[in-house]
């Protein structure tokens, strides 16, 4: 990392409005900061499930005064990695979107291939691929959606460090690392890959410079930074829960303080 101080928005003001179980929890600060840095006019998430990553993107849009829209694409039926689940997951996501992000979020309950026709080529600023994690599925998602990403746009890949079951995102991302210059990988959690499409006039920010212009030592420092940012966010969340529990214990019936 450069000698200048990197003090991103996630450390200044980010308090997640939605916390649900997800292996994406390790990357919430980065997701918030990435949106704040590149200020996408259009972002698309492929594979939403309970919406933890998607609503972090949306929260950053609102809190950083970004004039953008977010599309969530999922059949909300489950797959061989998540197993099947009922309609309650979608209804919960729909409710949270309506209550917090009405007017900027669009839930597209369909297969990824069906959603393609609704987006023009070179139109997406931020694409997040998080559907079925076999090698073949990730490859297909990237190759079919990549033309929709504008030059200079960002593509995220979740689970690029997950070597379990028949997950293959790690293997496909390693292939991309050999053919793309502007590419970065976070190793913590289940891993997160970041790729910038060549071309365009993407404005450079401190974060994108750290992602794509650093040497190996700088890359390692950035990885360590977001490991600590994740731990800091969790510690702050736990402290908030502790304060809430403590305050409730001090109250008696009908809100009266106990002796």
TrEMBL record:
Keyword Membrane recorded: no
Pfam families: Methyltransf_24
GO MF assignments: methyltransferase activity
Any one GO biological process: methylation
Any single Gene Ontology cellular-component annotation: plasma membrane
Alphabetical keyword list: Methyltransferase, Transferase
Lyase recorded as keyword: no
InterPro entries according to UniProt: SAM-dependent_MTases_sf
Protein name (Swiss-Prot/TrEMBL): Class I SAM-dependent methyltransferase
Organism, scientific name: Sediminihaliea albiluteola
């Amino acid at each position: 990392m450069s000698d200048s101080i990197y003090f991103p928005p996630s450390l200044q003001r980010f308090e997640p409005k939605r916390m649900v179980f997800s292996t994406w929890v390790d990357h919430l600060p980065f997701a918030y900061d990435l949106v704040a840095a590149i200020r996408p006019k259009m972002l698309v998430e492929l594979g939403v499930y309970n919406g933890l990553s998607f609503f972090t993107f949306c929260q950053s849009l609102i809190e950083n005064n970004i004039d953008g829209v977010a599309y969530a694409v999922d059949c909300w039926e489950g797959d061989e990695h998540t197993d099947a689940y009922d309609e309650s997951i979608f209804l919960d996501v729909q409710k949270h979107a309506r209550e917090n992000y009405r007017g900027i979020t669009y839930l597209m309950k369909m297969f990824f291939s069906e959603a393609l026709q609704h987006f023009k080529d070179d139109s997406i600023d931020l694409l997040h691929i998080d559907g079925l994690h076999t090698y073949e599925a990730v490859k297909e998602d990237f190759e079919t959606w990549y033309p929709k990403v504008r030059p200079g746009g960002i593509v995220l890949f979740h689970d690029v460090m997950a070597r379990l079951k028949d997950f293959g995102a790690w293997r496909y991302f390693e292939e991309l690392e050999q053919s793309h210059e502007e590419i970065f990988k976070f190793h913590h959690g289940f891993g997160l890959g970041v790729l910038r499409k060549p071309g365009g006039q993407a404005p450079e920010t401190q974060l994108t410079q750290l992602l794509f212009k650093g040497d190996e030592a700088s890359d390692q420092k950035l990885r360590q930074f977001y490991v600590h940012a994740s731990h800091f966010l969790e510690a702050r969340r736990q402290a908030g829960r502790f304060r809430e529990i403590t305050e409730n214990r001090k109250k008696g019936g009908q809100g009266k303080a106990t002796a």
